[in-house]
Design goal:
Helices cover about 20% and strands about 20% of the residues. The chain is of the alpha/beta class. The strands form two sheets. Strands 2-1-3-9-4 form a five-stranded mixed beta sheet. Helix 1 links the parallel strand 1 and strand 2.
Length: about 230
């Protein structure tokens, strides 16, 4: 169902989940401009980025790949470079970029745990965190620095929604939100086709015979108009 009414009679919000590092503010603003009759609600999710779709808390989600997507539609959106977050006292803090080999022997943390706690350990010199660049920016602190890793695989952000019905799957709302994220204008976004306007009405005045007959056509006696009978 596209917009199930709540008990108060108001339309149910279109719920979109997102992982940390994704900034959906622009897409939400466009949605509000185009869908004043249906509010949108954001849900921040991390470890349960796919579960939020399966249990119906959200209709769509911005997820960080890889995920178990056997029962999900997935549209890859953009890639994020990986960075190493190290203490300002770490030897790697003075270089502009790193290779994975430069971090051999280090305790490596990723973005799956509590990021604030992880960065606190890094700041204390207990290991290095390898995270997407957006996560490093979001949780930046003065006692750590982030350095690009030249040979690390980037992570991918994707838009996901379930095949199963019951969570706006296949609805106009999902089609519209996909169009917003992909940058389609309101005129070109998917949805019901615009009905044709009224066709022009035919004139009630009949054209005159002279208007209907082009010049030089037969006048009814078999001769072209304006021609003379040949003299014998």
């Amino acid at each position: 169902m596209d917009a199930t009414p709540t008990g108060s009679g108001a339309p149910e919000p279109f719920r979109v989940a997102y992982v940390r590092g994704v900034t959906p503010a622009k897409w939400v603003r466009i949605w509000k401009e185009r869908h004043r009759d249906r509010p949108i609600e954001l849900i921040l999710t991390d470890a349960d980025q796919v579960q939020v779709l399966h249990d119906g808390r959200a209709s769509m989600a911005f997820v960080r790949l890889p995920v178990d997507g056997d029962d999900l539609h997935l549209i890859p959106l953009y890639a994020e470079a990986a960075v190493a977050v190290v203490s300002r006292e770490h030897a790697a803090s003075v270089v502009e970029a790193l290779a994975l080999a430069d971090l051999s022997g280090e305790t490596i943390y990723d973005a799956t745990g509590d990021i604030d706690e992880t960065f606190a350990l890094v700041a204390a010199g207990v290991g290095v965190a390898i995270v997407p660049q957006s996560i490093a920016r979001l949780h930046a602190r003065r006692d750590v620095v982030a350095r690009p890793i030249t040979d690390a695989e980037p992570t991918q952000i994707a838009l996901a929604w379930p095949y199963a019905a019951g969570t706006d799957s296949g609805s106009k709302s999902i089609d519209d939100f996909i169009g917003i994220v992909r940058g389609r204008t309101e005129r070109s976004s998917r949805g019901p086709s615009v009905p044709e306007g009224p066709k022009p009405r035919a004139s009630s005045r009949e054209p005159s015979k002279s208007a209907r007959k082009p010049k030089g056509t037969s006048s009814g006696n078999g001769r072209p108009r304006g021609s003379r009978r040949p003299r014998h």
